[in-house]
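input
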Amino acid sequence: MSKMFIFMLLLLATIDEGEGSVMADCTGYKHEPSLYLRVCCIISNLEQNVTIRGIGITRYILCPKVRPKSCPLDNRDCKSLFETGFDINGVYTVNPDGGTPFEVYCDMETDGGGWTVFQRRQNGSVDFYRYWTDYENGFGDLTGEFWLGLSKIHRLTKEGSNTLRVDLGDFEGNTAYASYSTFNVKAAVLQPALESPLP
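output
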């Protein structure tokens, strides 16, 4: 879905190469980076070689040969991505603390959008009777049933104010939810306490 968004953005936007310059990691700009450089940066992160012809432009637009390695994109969590303009439910890459990026499922529709989903259970296709390390690291498929992992949830919630929303539904279509205004996973939770599977 992200690739489709980028493609549409390129076709609909007026592309201006601008006068700014950019460092190889997209961090050092003399001026605000142009749409052209930001899009090239996103394409680079997708590891695509792309030649694009824009509407009303008679020349092909190529990204620089030395393409940036990371985009100047606020991708701390799903909320920041939503506020940047991403509004389609799906899997996104986030980096809440400058460490190693990881993928999450973002719900961009429920209750105003921008929710980072850290657990989904729908039909019992994934066994949740697991060992501690599974709960620490995560398991399942982000597009199906999964548990994101305590270490990732800790990275997402260790700073700032976080709201937890729990949505429940049954097989007859009845739904309910609860919202908690203060939520985080402390580092102490990451210490293994059990060697047997958790229920």
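quick obs: Residues 2-12 form the longest helix (11 residues).
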